[in-house]
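User: New here, please read:
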Amino acid sequence: MASSASISGLSSGLDTASLVSQFMQLEAVPQTRLKARVTTEQKVVTALQTLNTKAALVGSKAASLAKPATWDAVTASVSTTGTTPSGVSVSADSTTAGPGRFSVTVTAVAQTHQLGFTSAAALTDTVTGGSTKVTIDRFDGTPVQIDTGDGTLKGLVAAINDSANNTGLRATPVKSADGYRLIVESVATGAASDFTITAEDGSALLGGATVRAGADARIDLGSGIVATSTTNTFADLTPGVTVTLSDDAVVGSTSTVTVKQDVSKISAAIADLVASANSLISEIDTQTANSATAGASGVLAGDAMSRNLRTSVLSTLFSAVGSTTLAKVGIQSDRTGKITFDTNAFATAYAKDPAGTEALFTAGATAEQNGFAARLEKVAKAASDSTTGTITTSIASRRSGVDRLQDSIDAWDVRLAQRKETLERQFTALETALNQMNQQSSWLSGQISSLPSYS
């Protein structure tokens, strides 16, 4: 809305522009209070969002620890008698592997099939006979022919190694005293990797070849149990357990493979959950601090929902049924209202009773039988659920309130603009009237002074 022109103090000598500004400051006091409330509410929303994020993180970590599958975590190791490494390694899949122990004696490692040709030649010598093609027989179907281009040793090596020919072989020329000798080996290992290479007419290349036959890897597990593999990897040798031999594994060496529950991994997950829960508690304490005790009030001071959440988090330390305490597995609360975790106490309890210890954390058959992690998951998700969480709904409510306050502020902008226009119009009218009066006074004075004087 356009404002009226203002003539500041033209006739009155008053700084009417300053007067209008001061009047408007008084008029704007209600709007200023609304703006202050918006700022405060926005700080509250920010604090609630921080709580929501921390609660959601607690819920996520608790949900993982509440699953029995998480407690199936295993670790696999290999021990070998003597000081020489056996070349045996092991990995375990926690979803399928279970505790176990067995010995592995290496009786053979997997090898490629290799041909070492007898005759030496220069790289530019023709070595394929009367044709530029050679025949490769992998004994798994019809022999295939590849074209070397020019029939030279260099062309033969290039054709074998060309990925477009898909030979499954690799060729290497090795320099000797009288030229280059050719070595060709299979890319894959195993007894079934054998092959031959001949000229197109079936005659031998380069004087024939010495053969090193491909071989399967073989290990002896004892009691007459032998396992073989075309590679040096024995996948799922036992359910979820894979044993791998290095290329230089010591034939004849015996190793012991041990698969056991990974207590350290579970303990670390519990410690991480406790740390996240304590971070949430600390955030609540900071944001709900009262000036009478903390020196400065938090933005959520007096917020019952936040304090109830803190109480609910700590209440998860206690089971809904029975008198079982978490202290024996290392979980307690301290004097400051934080949760503590003793890893040594947990390790001792788990070693003594793995199933019973797990039950104190995981989901039970009923909600009343839920363990610590399951109870904490329920509390955290009740607070942070994206649609029904108590923090989520509080944030939505506060945002709606901010929107309403902002609407009121916008309405006050219009109202104040109108009020300013009215004041400026009134002062302008005042100055105009005073100016007219001054002009009339000057005219009258002139008229009076022009009258004749009589003695």
Remarks:
- The radius of gyration is 45 Å.
- The mean pLDDT is 88.
- The chain has three domains: 32-70+264-393, 74-110+217-261, 112-212.
